[in-house]
Structure to design on (211 residues):
């Protein structure tokens, strides 16, 4: 099935997780949120605000990937809308999964943007900020290692792949970050306003016409 442009543009990690939960059985929002947390998927997608789940579901319903299955009424509680996946939703969920697995993301993370203009701070101030980032990444790595170590005995590796990947990414980020911090501390990586002006003049001559 060829996806429409609107369906392709609506692809999101949370949308994929929601569709995959609905593969199993119809669910209401509260049930989805509980399952996401119980299975550790809240480390993969942000569901701290239940509104994000509602917004995702509304989008999936508009696209015809999810439909309202029933409304459960319990005395003393708000009505709960139960959602079910449609046949189109099953096909699209698999295609989203294929696309996300095979295609590197084209997002523009904040950190890469900040690194590209790190010279906007003095070397010492930049190092201080990077050291704070290092502390937070190290704490996140420790939590991830604890998550893996605390997995139920005998749990197949298939269900720990996201934590393995997170651990590898965090280790790589920390390795790079610590190298940069050390280079700034030892002045192997250094800059000043005067040096920046000289570099700007050398690589962006004022008399060079725009082409």
């Amino acid at each position: 099935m060829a996806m429409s442009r609107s369906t392709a543009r609506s692809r999101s990690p949370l949308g994929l997780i929601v569709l995959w939960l609905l593969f199993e059985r119809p669910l209401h929002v509260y049930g989805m949120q509980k399952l996401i947390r119980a299975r550790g998927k809240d480390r993969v997608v942000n569901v701290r605000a239940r509104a994000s789940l509602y917004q995702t579901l509304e989008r999936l319903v508009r696209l015809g990937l999810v439909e309202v299955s029933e409304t459960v009424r319990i005395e003393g509680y708000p009505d709960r809308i139960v959602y079910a996946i449609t046949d189109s939703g099953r096909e699209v969920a698999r295609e989203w999964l294929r696309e996300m697995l095979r295609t590197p993301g084209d997002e523009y993370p904040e950190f890469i943007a900040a690194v590209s203009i790190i010279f906007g701070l003095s070397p010492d101030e930049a190092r201080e900020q990077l050291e704070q980032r290092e502390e937070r990444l190290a704490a996140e790595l420790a939590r991830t290692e604890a998550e893996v170590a605390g997995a139920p005995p005998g749990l197949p590796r298939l269900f720990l792949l996201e934590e393995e990947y997170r651990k590898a990414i965090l280790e790589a980020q920390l390795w790079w970050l610590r190298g940069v911090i050390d280079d700034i501390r030892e002045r192997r990586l250094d800059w000043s306003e005067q040096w920046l002006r000289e570099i700007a003049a050398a690589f962006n001559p004022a008399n060079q016409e725009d082409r």
About this structure: The two ends are 45 Å apart (CA to CA).
